């Protein structure tokens, strides 16, 4: 009796193990957050839903790719340096970055201060572009990739004003703890511009929202010293910033960005 012919392998069958490998690697990397930057092998194993031997095999491969690092003293894993490289590449490829750049360059020449662009990464504003080619002897440089305080920074207040409170980690609790914070956020929404008062270490920032359609997609800010930036949200510099933010929004396809109620 002849044996039944074996079923031809399909492309989907051959690819399934590879897809599962990628999915598992992504699960491990996705487990790390700003609030939880270090994980043990047991935590990774639990996240993966597999055996400890399987988790160890994946962490070993991710370490070889420099996507994870391991501290032998604490026996904890953290994201590796290659993640920073990939993150920088991803941020550089955001449409808002290329759209905003010429407007930011023009604003720098107009106000002679550093201009930065931030986007919301799910937990806080993160700087994706910084233009600091001012004519000043002393200039303020802001590192791309810098994570800003979601409640205290001028850019953070912009996101607090236009995102739902539950989208900003810690905001509902902060609103209960500080009754004046709600009024300050409402003032940002009404003026269309935010300022970090009090200034930190002599640095003052103004920030305004950038929209794509009805959605808030970023915040553009002017960074300088308390001596060079007027905290008045109705100052000429603030007006120039708001105008620039509106022009970037228009370039992204927003006809008339309006604050959310």
Q: Which percent band covers the strand fraction? A: 15-25%
Which value, in Å, is the CA radius of gyration?
Answer: 23 Å
Contiguous low-pLDDT stretches (5 residues minimum) are: 1-9, 256-261
Which homologous superfamily in CATH is the superfamily of the largest domain? GAF domain
Q: Based on helices, strands and strand pairing, what is the structural class?
A: alpha+beta
Helices and strands, in N-to-C order? Answer: HHHEEHHEEHHHEEEH
Q: What is the highest CATH level, the class of the largest domain?
A: Alpha Beta
Query: Would you give the CATH topology of the largest domain?
Result: Beta-Lactamase
Write out the strand line-up for the largest beta sheet, numbering strands in chain order: 4-3-7-6-5
CATH-level-2 architecture of the largest domain: 2-Layer Sandwich
How many structural domains does the protein architecture include? 2
**Fraction of residues in H or I helices:** 40-55%
Biggest sheet layout: 5 strands, antiparallel
The residue-averaged pLDDT reads: 87
The number of helical segments is 9
C-alpha end-to-end distance: 77 Å
Concise summary:
The protein is 44% helix and 17% strand.
Protein traits:
261 residues; alpha+beta; two-stranded antiparallel ribbon; elongated; disordered C terminus; Tscrpt_reg_IclR_N; DNA-binding transcription factor activity; DNA binding; Tscrpt_reg_IclR_C
How would you characterize this protein structure?
With 261 residues, the chain is an alpha+beta fold. The chain folds into two domains: 11-85, Orthogonal Bundle (Arc Repressor Mutant, subunit A); 93-251, GAF domain (Beta-Lactamase), CATH 3.30.450. Helix content is 44%, strand content 17%. It has nine helices and seven strands, in the order αααββααββαααβββα. It has helices at 11-30, 41-48, 52-64, 81-92, 95-111, 154-162, 171-177, 179-191, 236-251; strands at residues 68-71, 76-79, 114-120, 125-131, 194-195, 203-212, 215-225. The strands form two sheets. The chain has a five-stranded antiparallel sheet with strand order 4-3-7-6-5, sandwiched between helices. Strands 1-2 form a two-stranded antiparallel sheet. The longest helix has 20 residues, at 11-30. The chain is elongated. The N and C termini lie far apart (77 Å). The model is unreliable at 1-9 and 256-261 (pLDDT under 50).
């Amino acid at each position: 009796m002849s044996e039944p012919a074996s079923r031809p392998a399909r492309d989907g069958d051959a690819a399934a193990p590879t897809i599962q490998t990628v999915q598992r690697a992504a699960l491990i990397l996705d487990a790390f957050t700003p609030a939880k930057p270090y994980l043990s092998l047991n935590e990774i194993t639990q996240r993966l839903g597999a055996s400890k031997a399987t988790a160890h095999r994946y962490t070993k491969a991710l370490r070889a790719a420099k996507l994870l690092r391991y501290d032998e003293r604490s026996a904890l894993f953290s994201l590796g340096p290659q993640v920073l490289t990939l993150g920088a590449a991803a941020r550089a490829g955001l449409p808002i970055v290329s759209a905003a750049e010429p407007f930011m360059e023009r604003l720098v020449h107009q106000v002679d201060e550093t201009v930065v662009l931030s986007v919301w990464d799910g937990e806080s504003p993160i700087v994706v572009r910084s233009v600091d080619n001012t004519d000043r002897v002393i200039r303020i440089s802001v590192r791309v990739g810098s994570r800003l305080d979601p409640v205290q920074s001028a850019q953070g207040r912009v996101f607090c004003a236009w995102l739902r409170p539950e989208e900003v980690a810690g905001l509902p609790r902060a609103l209960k703890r500080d009754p004046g914070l709600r009024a300050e956020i409402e003032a940002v929404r009404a003026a269309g511009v935010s300022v970090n008062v009090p200034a930190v270490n002599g640095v003052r920032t103004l920030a305004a929202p950038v929209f794509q359609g009805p959605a808030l997609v970023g915040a553009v800010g002017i960074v300088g010293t308390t001596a060079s930036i007027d905290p008045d949200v109705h100052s000429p510099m603030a007006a120039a910033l708001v105008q620039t933010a509106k022009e970037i929004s228009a370039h992204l396809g927003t006809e008339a960005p309006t604050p959310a109620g």
